[in-house]
């Protein structure tokens, strides 16, 4: 399927679909449709085989079970067994469990964070190939207990080594998420959380914009198969162009996540890798391998925390700008 950069007559809305509509995350999460895993192949026409007429007096034949098929029989009254349930991921090893414990406490004493961010998306051939790079800043704060906010402002886009100014903004105030395009003066405002509930967009795998800070240990164990490689550089290449990244990640710990089969995260991701710097356990790098065969990575540098982040209320304003075009969708 061609993407917007391949379509010279693409509308502004179509072009925006090739942009990071979902911050992508500090774990590389994107909002995207999933292509079917395979297309049926046409077979040559042949003479149909006559179907024998079934004998109505004969007992029903058992269903045909193909090799490799798993059949779950629903529990019947008197069976004395419960219906089959999804088996949770295996318990992580000692090193991984220690990292999870440390990460759960990483947001204690953290009131705010600001950082330069670079997001890279590598498209598979079926989507036209190529690489898109977005650069900007990410701001995060806990405005009140349990009320987390973020603002991501991209101001530079690089498409296949060609740089251009392309502003995109994503702001969440603890209730509303707004995406803004200052160039085209368009917005999209969505209510994610209200008094009736909702989903946390900062939670890995649950929302469009997860920031892997202060994730709950038990929740992570329930939803992912988790490992922590002994070498933090495991999975990072050795080419000259990666020397600076390897130097940055040398003093980190890596957490590797594989979504539980059948879980919601498995729809988008095959694997997620996160790197947290030693000492304060803040995230600095993330990679994802996605089910559509794309790959993504997020790099955070020049991280400032608390007072040094110099955050203010205006950074997290999600009101629709006057005179802009867009839509607002309350949560139902």
Features:
332 residues; mainly beta; outer membrane lipoprotein receptor (LolB), chain A; 12-stranded mixed sheet; two-stranded antiparallel ribbon; 4 helices; 14 strands; 9% helix; 33% strand; globular
In short:
The protein is mostly beta strands and 332 residues long. The two termini are 33 Å apart.
Topology:
Blueprint: H1 12-16, H2 94-104, E1 112-122, E2 131-144, E3 147-159, E4 162-172, E5 176-181, E6 186-191, E7 193-194, E8 197-198, H3 217-223, E9 224-227, H4 243-249, E10 252-259, E11 269-277, E12 283-290, E13 295-305, E14 325-329
Parallel strand pairs: 6-14
Antiparallel strand pairs: 1-2, 1-13, 2-3, 3-4, 4-5, 5-6, 7-8, 9-10, 10-11, 11-12, 12-13
How would you characterize the overall build of this protein?
There is one protein chain. This protein is mainly beta. Helices cover 9% and strands 33% of the residues. A 12-stranded mixed beta sheet has the order 9-10-11-12-13-1-2-3-4-5-6-14. A two-stranded antiparallel ribbon has the order 7-8. Strand 5 (176-181) and strand 6 form a beta hairpin. The two termini are 33 Å apart. Residues 1-19 and 21-85 have low confidence and may be disordered.
Task: Characterize the main sheet.
Answer: 12 strands, mixed
The H-level CATH homologous superfamily, spelled out, is Lipoprotein localisation LolA/LolB/LppX
Give start-end ranges of low-pLDDT stretches.
Answer: 1-19, 21-85
Tally the helices: what do you get? 4
Termini separation: 33 Å
> What's the gyration radius in Å?
24 Å
* Global structural class: mainly beta
Secondary-structure element order, N to C: HHEEEEEEEEHEHEEEEE
Strand content: 25-35%
* Average of the residue pLDDT scores: 76
Helix content: under 10%
Outline, from the CA principal axes? globular
How many domains in all?
1
What is the CATH topology? Answer: outer membrane lipoprotein receptor (LolB), chain A
The top-level CATH class is Mainly Beta
**Strands across the major sheet, in which order?**
9-10-11-12-13-1-2-3-4-5-6-14
Q: How many extended strands?
A: 14
By CATH, the architecture is named Clam
